[in-house]
Write a structure and sequence with these properties.
The chain has helices at about 35-45, 65-70, 90-105, 120-125, 130-145, 185-195, 205-220, 240-250, 255-265, 270-280, 295-300, 310-325, 335-345, 350-355; strands at about 5-10, 50-55, 80-85, 110, 155, 160-165, 175-180, 195-200, 225-235, 290, 295, 305-310, 330-335. It has about 375 residues and is α/β, with parallel strands linked by helices. The chain binds flavin mononucleotide.
């Protein structure tokens, strides 16, 4: 029997659309309003996703405040809240997360984002170089965990010094720590401190070797992690319909827009982003990088750039393939997030449920009546 899979969706706090590069004002372009994000969160909750990842960065609404506003409109959905540790005191972050657990009934997870692009980091006043940032993240996580330990926690490191750090109550449960970052120092911090190591979607062998690298580093420290992978998804009744939807996403993308994005990616300071851009090298003819794995989104957008594309059965098969490559957690999304959550939730999730890989829905669907 295969081990369980955890499926998560994504909260588009930077806005949502039917196109990869939307023109503001066009039909289908959606602001990240509380009402729209509530619709996505409620859909994810009802469809049986375990959590929603909420990104962080200048272009997004703040993840703590946005997700806290959605606690009351959801029942069991967890919030995977991304934040940059360098911008907060670790004891304050421990307190915020501890409060979040009590206000939400234990529905918070954290995604620790060390950050890579100087322009973005400088906006927030962070001028530390990359080795320093990761060293600081490692100390931050040690203090945050210490503050959750139930005992006053003392720490003296290069970046933080605290005495008696603690929170009002020990959070229940202590939020699990998710962590992305593909560079060498990122992997060492993940191996020492994270609960779940995240990668952006690459072909299975490449993704597996990333996870195995962290697994070895963690084993050397006597630790075991879980591994998660981030994909967009376009799943339909037939493969032809799914690929037509992928093509429609690309329609209207100009060669200039692709060239502009490639120039941006060439100057990236993020190893993860460099790996994403290398998958296609800017070539619109090289986008299918593995069966049902399509790199089209990454031609013009940074971050997660690959999608699982195919019939519901094909997408379920690919998820199984990645599961066998060592990934237990899948963070998925699609444009637009509300509709794609339903395509995936009603098309692929029943297949995975049937195989016993994800839990049954708390409420099975009842009869639908008609006036006859
Ligand atoms: C699944 C996943 C989600 C991420 N989310 C964010 C995010 O919301 N904001 C951000 O600035 N970086 C995000 N990142 C980027 C990393 O957290 C990290 O800052 C960056 O990759 C560091 O560069 P490195 O790969 O060179 O270590 C994410 C990475 C992964 C794998």
């Amino acid at each position: 029997m295969e081990s369980r899979i955890r499926l998560h969706w994504f909260l588009p706090t930077g806005g949502d659309s039917r196109d990869i590069l939307p023109d503001p004002g066009r039909p289908g372009v959606r602001n990240p309003s509380r009402r729209y994000l509530a619709q996505v969160a409620m859909a994810a909750d009802d469809l049986g996703f375990e959590a929603v990842l909420t990104p962080c960065g200048t272009g997004c609404e703040d993840a703590w405040i946005t997700t806290a506003s959605l606690i009351a409109v959801t029942e069991r959905l967890k919030f995977l809240v991304a934040f940059r540790p360098g911008l907060l005191s670790p004891t304050l972050a421990a307190q915020m997360a501890s409060t979040y657990q009590r206000m939400s009934g234990g529905r918070m997870l954290v995604n620790v984002v060390t950050g890579a692009e100087p322009r973005e980091l400088h906006r927030f006043g962070d001028y530390a170089d990359k080795p320093t940032r990761y060293e600081r993240t490692g100390e931050f996580l040690a203090v945050m965990r210490g503050a959750w330990s139930g005992e006053p926690f003392d720490f003296e490191g290069t970046h933080y010094r605290v005495e008696g750090a603690m929170t009002r109550e020990v959070p229940d449960p202590r939020p699990e720590i998710y962590f992305g970052g593909a560079s060498d120092p990122a992997k060492d911090v993940a191996a020492s401190q994270a609960d779940v190591y995240l990668v952006w979607g690459e072909p299975p062998e490449a993704a597996r070797s990333q996870a195995d690298d962290v697994r070895e580093r963690a084993a050397a420290r006597g630790r075991e992690l879980r591994y998660g992978i981030r994909f967009h998804v376009i799943s339909r009744n037939t493969a032809a319909e799914a690929w037509a939807a992928a093509d429609a996403l690309m329609a209207g993308i100009s060669a200039e827009a692709i060239a502009e994005a490639q120039a941006d990616f060439r100057s990236t300071m993020s190893e993860g982003q460099r790996r994403m851009a290398e998958l296609h090298g800017g070539d619109a003819g090289r986008l299918v990088i593995h069966p049902n794995v399509w790199a089209g989104i990454g031609l013009v957008r940074g971050g997660a750039g690959t999608a699982l594309v195919g019939s519901h059965e094909e997408v379920a098969d690919r998820i199984l393939e990645y599961h066998r490559a060592g990934f237990e957690e899948f963070i998925l999304s699609g444009y637009p997030h509300l509709e794609e959550a339903h395509f995936f939730g009603e098309g692929v999730m029943p297949i995975l449920r049937e195989k016993g890989l994800i839990p049954e829905l708390p409420r099975a669907s009842g009869p639908v009546f008609s006036f006859r």
